[in-house]
Amino acid sequence: MSNPYDTAAERMSILPPSMRFKGELSADEDLLIQGTIEGTIHHTQRVTIGKEGKIKANISANIIKVEGTVEGDLQAEHSVHVNQSGNLRGNIRAPSVCLVEGSHFNGAVDMDPKRPGQAHSEHGTGRVAAKAKPSASGI
């Protein structure tokens, strides 16, 4: 029997801006959050916090993309990407991290690829407080 979800868009769950959720959220498909969540988020795929998303939760997923507001720690098996509209207050643990110019970030970054899911050590952890702004030259 074939999979009834043939495209990536059909395998994505969407929490709309009007939705508020409190508790533990977990699933195996991609997730786009435009609503408000408080608690914890555990996903095996991609989690995207949309521009309207407001999250107070620790998030673990394969890939995490922040376009909205997140207060909590992020742990990704592959990567964390904070877009220009993103606002993150919390620690990041992932082998690959991208903070786009214009994004807001306050926390620590651990990019040690040997230790996904493990506690911070004295090596590979840096304390970072950043508020990216475009330069006058536009570069």
Topology:
Blueprint: E1 13-15, E2 20-27, E3 31-33, E4 36-43, E5 46-49, E6 54-66, E7 69-71, E8 74-82, E9 87-89, E10 92-93, E11 96-99, E12 104-110, E13 125-131
Parallel strand pairs: 1-3, 2-4, 3-5, 4-6, 5-6, 6-7, 6-8, 7-9, 8-10, 8-11, 9-12, 10-12
Antiparallel strand pairs: 12-13
Explain the overall architecture.
The protein has strands at 13-15, 20-27, 31-33, 36-43, 46-49, 54-66, 69-71, 74-82, 87-89, 92-93, 96-99, 104-110, 125-131. It is 0% helix and 53% strand. The chain has one domain (9-131). It is globular. The protein is mainly beta and 139 residues long. The termini are far apart. Mean pLDDT is 83; it is low at 1-9 and 118-139. A 6-stranded parallel β-barrel has the order 6-7-9-12-10-8. It is built from no helices and 13 strands.
Summarize the structure.
This protein is an all-beta fold and 139 residues long.
Percent of residues in β-strands:
over 45%
Structural class: mainly beta
H/E element string? EEEEEEEEEEEEE
Tell me the number of structural domains: 1
Indicate the radius of gyration in whole angstroms: 15 Å
Q: Can you give the mean pLDDT?
A: 83
Number of strands: 13
The dominant shape is globular
Oligomeric state as shown: single chain
Percent helix, as a range, is: under 10%
Give a quick account of the main beta sheet: strands, pairing sense, barrel closure: 6 strands, parallel, barrel
Widest sheet: strand ordering: 6-7-9-12-10-8
Separation of termini? 52 Å
Helix count?
0
Spans of at least 5 consecutive residues with low confidence: 1-9, 118-139
